[in-house]
Amino acid sequence: MRNMEIKKALRLYFVMGTPNSGSQDPLAIVEAALRGGITCFQLREKGSNALEGDALLGFAKKCQALCRLYRVPFIINDDVDLALAINADGVHVGQDDEQADSVRQRIGPDKWLGVSTHNAQEVQLAQSIGADYVGLGPIYPTSTKLDASAVVGTTLVKEIHTAFPDMPIVAIGGITLATTGSIIQAGADGVAVVSAIASAKDPQYAANDLSKTIHSLLE
Ligand SMILES: Cc1ncsc1CCOP(=O)(O)O
Ligand SMILES: C=C1C=NC(C)=NC1=N
Ligand SMILES: [Mg+2]
């Protein structure tokens, strides 16, 4: 059943773009994260000196090839054209991006559609347009997304999970190994992280620690 497949994929959801890789080789970080056991990868190419055009297309294809090797879903953030061009497994859009319902028209029923949400009203809207999952956050303060909205905390995770028991929920924003357990226990199906893996001195090890913690809490 698709819903269960998606909930499992959300367990350890790595989100990254080349600007998040510091001085490291971004593709090496993606591969290390895959080796460490991430369950989903999202290419979120945003911010200063983000790749564009052919450079972005080439990098996206390399990430997609790695994800295929590790049998991990490959999601593109915001850029629906890119997602369609390379036949990504899905797209993730924010509240301010192309209206999620027109995205669903463009990508069709089989690709995954994720929507960023910050409150119950936005989750309700996402559900009504057929989102496959919601990203909920920022749970904690984050310096990765410069225009993040107000911190919501794990209380909202519990609230949304209770109000929308079937909606797959991935929490995002300032999440670390230390806070992952309480987020899962609040009812999230998984955690989405950028810096906890991308900025780790050993991204594979960081991903593996997160994976072990999450899988110790979920059957
Ligand atoms: C993309 C996004 N959306 C809400 S917070 C965030 C960034 C999360 O980055 P980090 O895991 O480093 O706090
Ligand atoms: C903003 C976001 C929220 N949630 C997820 C999963 N990805 C994002 N880019
Ligand atoms: Mg966006």
| CATH topology name | TIM Barrel
β-strand number: 8
> What percentage of the residues does DSSP assign to strands (E)?
15-25%
Low-confidence stretches are none
Radius of gyration: 16 Å
Q: How much helix, percentage-wise, in residues?
A: 40-55%
Widest β-sheet, arrangement of strands: 1-2-3-4-5-6-7-8
Structural class: alpha/beta
Ligands present: 4-methyl-5-hydroxyethylthiazole phosphate, 2-methyl-5-methylene-5H-pyrimidin-4-ylideneamine, magnesium ion
What form results from the Cα inertia axes? globular
Largest sheet: 8 strands, parallel, barrel
Tally of domains:
1
Treating each run of at least 4 consecutive H or I residues as one helix, how many helices? 10
**Span between N and C termini?**
17 Å
Q: At the first level of CATH, what is the class? A: Alpha Beta
Architecture per CATH nomenclature, i.e. the level-2 architecture: Alpha-Beta Barrel
- Relevant CATH superfamily: Aldolase class I
Order of helices and strands: HEHEHEHEHEHEHEHEHH
Mean pLDDT: 96
Explained architecture:
Residues 12-197 form the Thiamine phosphate synthase/TenI domain. InterPro entries: Aldolase_TIM, ThiamineP_synth_sf, ThiamineP_synth_TenI, TMP_synthase. The protein is an alpha/beta fold and 219 residues long. The protein has one domain (2-218): Alpha-Beta Barrel (TIM Barrel), CATH 3.20.20. 45% of the residues lie in helices and 16% in strands. It has helices at 2-9, 26-36, 53-69, 80-85, 100-107, 120-128, 153-163, 177-185, 195-198, 203-217, and strands at 12-16, 40-43, 74-77, 90-93, 112-117, 133-136, 169-172, 190-193. The protein has an eight-stranded parallel beta barrel, surrounded by eight helices. Helix 4 (80-85) links the parallel strand 3 and strand 4. The model has no long low-confidence stretch (mean pLDDT 96). The site of magnesium ion (MG) has 5 residues, from loops.
